[in-house]
Amino acid sequence: VADAVAEVAAADAKPEVADIASDPCTTKLAQFTKLKDSALTCKEFYECHKLATASANCTDCQLHHSGLQADTQNLIDFTPEWKKSGCAKACGSTCADTLSNVGVCASGKCETKSLTCKELDTAATTALAAGAKCTADADCAFKVSNTLACGCPTFVNVKTMGPGKPLFLYMTMLVKAYKAKLCTKDVTCECPDPQTAKCVAGVCIAQ
What we know:
Blueprint: H1 2-21, H2 24-39, E1 48-55, E2 58-66, H3 70-84, E3 102-106, E4 109-113, H4 117-131, E5 140-145, E6 153-157, H5 158-161, H6 166-180, E7 197-200, E8 203-206
Antiparallel strand pairs: 1-2, 3-4, 5-6, 7-8
Helix pairs in contact: 2-3, 4-6
């Protein structure tokens, strides 16, 4: 009797399993959603600078995700597989303007927003202040402009602002948005060009 009951239960379960297997896009959508939600989490203001797919059914649209989350790269890697499977469709509406917009960490989540030129300047000032923190003179070896517009050279900590570092990539995003919004024009700045800097009271100071 027990065997008979088991056979009936197994037979009843087959259609449900078959239904799930016949709809791989449902499984992929769950994977995509989990990755996207995780990739959008952030703690610091400079984390949201990496572009990744915005929506499962909108593979050509992008948003700024956290550049410090491994899941952001997993999401980027997952997108071609999702598109190749035939699950994803083209955007039904216009994509967000990611060139002149930037990533903002708000309440623990990355949001893609349009900031004013003044707000972009403020964001850059915050980033440069964070990048200028140091513990030794040797830290102050990375030269950057002290504003997004016509700034003068200044030094920041190569450990935080060097190529490939979060703050550097965050600043790169701000510069692109600044130019895209036509906040400034290319001009030649006339100001001192310091060659070295020292760590004074925990901050890089150009010499």
